[in-house]
Batch of 4 targets.
Target 1
Amino acid sequence: MKRAVRVLIIEGSAVTRRILSAILAADRELEVVAAVAGVPDAREAMARLRPDVITLDVAVLTRRGLASLEGLIRASRTPVVLVSPPTRKARELTMLALELGAVDVVQMPSRELVRRMPDVVSQMLDAVKAAARARLGPVTRTEPDASADGRGGAAERVIAVGASIGGTEAIRQLLMAMPPDAPGLVIVQHMPERFTRAFAEHCDGSCPVRVQEAKDGDRLGPGHAFIAPGNRHMRVHRDGQSYRVALESTPPVNGHRPSIDVLFTSTAAAAGENAVGVILTGMGADGARGLSAMKRAGARTLAQDEASCVVFGMPREAIALGAVDHVLPLSELGRAALELSGPGAGGVR
């Protein structure tokens, strides 16, 4: 019988500690080894109990305390799932914690917890089990690529990107490699509602391109990246010589809304050979069929390699389906996407 995933809970509220402990302990695949009130308490428990996954209440963090979190992640190499209330301060700290190496975030509602409990249970279990499969590489700090020359910045070119667990930092690094006149980018990151706007704002403050949470009808253009809002699908459609995005609340696809397959399939139909598709780290198979549709339509397709992925699930599924032209480390994907989106683009050198 497979060993249960050992989970350490860091949660400031005693009531919520009991709730999370009960949620996780009820699943046979999980074992709650301890529940503590803060990061300092977690250090002793980490050394003694060696958990496989940590869940962390974002409300216990401060900006000064982020250094302690980074030290914990670096020292233990244990995947951290953030549990965040839907406040602005919590969203800002969540973005910083993801940049430091946390792998996923689950939103804990501040009100109507009982009514929302089925959703919270499902999200928590999925996130913890996915995190148990995560492989953490070294935490890096990326700077904008000053050598990028902006080839392929025409408005009719599109780069479509999909990611899930571990994807926030992968997306940020990809965007850091883009010049200010890069082709228009459309991005789906599996993330709770409201957190996608904070993620877009976080990227916008550090990346050469302008990054925004998408609004219905936004027009793609050089130097702009649009991130699908949490809980809304995003499609690309043709508008003359350029493209616009459409948002919708149709049912989830592959268990996700937004779904990467929805984005990729619509990009295939709208842009065909004028598009590049990029599948990044993530659990499951969302995006594989859509990337295959892009390739059949003439688009170039890229996947993040296993060594640089936090979870290799989505790239593996796309590769197995024959949907991927090139498999590359994260550090090379931005340059490759830029090259392949240029006029008369050939292979990756």
Target 2
Amino acid sequence: MLGLLWNKKKEYLTLVLATTSAIFFATTATAGSARIRGTVTAVGTNALAVRTETGANVSIVLDGATGYLTSTRSDLNHLTPNSYIGVVSKDVGDRRVALDVIIFPPSMRGAAEGFSTWDKRPDTTLSKGIRTATGMTNGSVTTVAASQSPSSVESAMTNGSIAAATRAGDTKQLTVTYAGAKQTILVPPTAPIVMLERGVIADLKAGDAVFVNAVEDGSKTTAALIIVGSNGIAPPL
């Protein structure tokens, strides 16, 4: 009986993460949606207080539908065939250059698969904190080869699976496949790489950096999905 209940709980958590991740990785802002980045100042049973990047203090409602993920530091060695990844990248000719990379847990394979615009993020490929428009691509890495860092870029978000990956020094060139399409993406040493894992509300502590995808209804802001940094790591998104 306990085993059955545990399996049902895992199925529920998987469904929650699949649903909220689709909302979370929606790349076009819609009425009532909000992306909140900042630092946790307080955690309650049903509420989270966050000081945002812009210095605002926001109170966020937590409910039974809120999903939680933790992010831990990873590296190029974990960008391997069959891994499902998300890449915030900039456009450089016929390829893209990664600004940030996230590695999804197996239970989130297929989350928001595709390519679309993201929002403005720090340009990690530059020495100064210049912000540029970005997008996210989620797909599979088919091929990685040696290349030199480009001098100019644009950005987007891609989600997909790694089909193949090769490495040249501290750079990887990836061919990412998603929804019948593919992209060539360079991952330079400047791109933070993190691994996501399922989390719980207890993972939230004052001082942690978080990314919150929320739904706004009048003065009420409710968290759909929260990614919390671990061991001083800030969620790159």
Target 3
Amino acid sequence: MTNPKAFSDNQAEAGTDHFDRRTLLKGAAAFAAAGVAASQASARDYGPGVEPTRYPDPDILVLDEKRFKAKVGNTTIKRLYTGCLWAEGPAWNAQGQYLVWSDIPANRQLRYLDDDGHISEQFHKPSNEANGNSFDFEGRQISAERTRLVRYEHNGSVTSLAEQANGKPLNGPNDMVVHPNDKSIWFTDPGYGAISIYEGQLAKTGSLQPYQKEAVYRLDTQSGQLSKVADEPFKPNGIAFSHDYKKVYVCDTGITHYPNAKNVIWSYDLNGDKLSNPKQFIDMTLNGKSGFPDGMRVDVDGNVWVGAGWVGAGYDGVQIFAPDGQRIGQILLPETCANLTFGGKKRNRLFMTASQSLYAVYVETTGAHNC
């Protein structure tokens, strides 16, 4: 996702459903006044040589003790790296035991090696301002570049998987997931890379829909056929399968540009190669404030872990929702969190790309999917 600078002042003043970055960040003061446990997130020092954080980590919040069982009492949130311009798209490679993520404005992708914590700062550079990443079931990296969806082959070559839909260029792919049964790739196309100089190149079409209506697509990797499967979200962003592959969840960040949009996550029933029964599944409002749901992953119990932000301390970080959409936990970070994924040898380590940094924390659950 892009930053919310595109809001106009008129939109920001018109109501609570549309606001600019300044309005979003004002939420920090409101949370503090309301007594939300935000002081640790805003004051915590993640720099080298600081004193250890006392167990249990105060920035991992259990909101529902009966349903949120993933907090580990004797572990803390770690900052593994900082220095990005805008970090996005973490994906875990189980075969190589490494994490890859994107730094969109810097036109690069980085890699974290789990064996010794080494960071490769130019794993892929240039990256065509890639955003989201994933791995297919052959261990090949899939990336949502600014103009197309691509796959990195085992021999080092790059295959373009999708560049057009309906005879028109894609707006700008964002995030994707791979289905284990038919190896199809489901991806979102909000077009942020075509309406921002900082994270891409302006399409110069004069439209917030750079080339066509923003939508969710399914790519049949066997035939190459690309099909639009949903277009209810104003700007579909993060995407995830439910733990049992019966549903598809889609984050909507259309509030960055559309006055009538809301910070919600959509739910669809998954029927083979089609989606049906669209519903607004999760409302991101917390204590009267609402931030963006950017990316998400699902654990083996069906809980939805969402990267959230642009409000301030006490909100920004990761928010965890039960399968019925009720908020049950939070992980507070001192930066807006865009995306996350489960990784590590047991797939019980949550990696979080948050603005300029990469964070990680062990949890007492595992990711439902391969990366």
Target 4
Amino acid sequence: MAEKTTISTYENGPFLVAGGRFRLVDAGGDEFSVEKETIALCRCGASTKKPFCDGTHSRVGFRAAERVIREH
């Protein structure tokens, strides 16, 4: 059985994409080279290596509401 790709959030940090094979494609249809099984994608908008995270979120004070809001 193939491993599922999982996208999760790192608290006040990037999206982590892990597990299995995936493609990362930009708005123009061009593919980014992805050689790792886990990558971190920028969520704060300040990375100089977009779409990848470079850790800038910690310097700019990025805060996110990454918790699931459960309906009652």
